[in-house]
Amino acid sequence: xxxxxxxxxxxxxxxxxxxxxxxxxxxxxxxxxxxxxxxxxxxxxxxxxxxxxxxxxxxxxxxxxxxxxxxxxxxxxxxxxxxxxxxxxxxxxxxxxxxxxxxxxxxxxxxxxxxxxxxxxxxxxxxxxxxxxxxxxxxxxxxxxxxxx
Length: 149
Known about the structure:
Layout lengths: L7 H16 L11 E2 L15 E4 L3 E2 L6 E2 L4 E14 L2 H16 L2 H5 L4 E16 L2 E15 L1
Parallel strand pairs: 1-2
Antiparallel strand pairs: 2-5, 3-5, 4-5, 5-7, 6-7
Helix pairs in contact: 1-2
């Protein structure tokens, strides 16, 4: 999918979502949807929901200015958050490795040719929370990049 400036947010999000969906395998081989665009409308206290990946909407980083040029947006500093949830730290690490590798190994072959340049992992937040009686481990990985068109 080619990202164009008229569909900046949705195009960038779709590029990340499609890459993860195509190259990250469910370690539990459930055969059900497990990669989402936001918090799903289902009980998060259900063990069968995990592991899960949420690819959140892309956004322009901070209060940086968008540079306009000809024929459209030229250099837009952006970021996207990909959050992974699992009921064990080991499974979280397995899924995180797959997510990271699916993006990192396709910097040039997928992302760069579609205008997503200077792609780097910007940071992450990890924690463990209780969902009812269920202990859930999560990691929110932020990828920073410039969209260039």
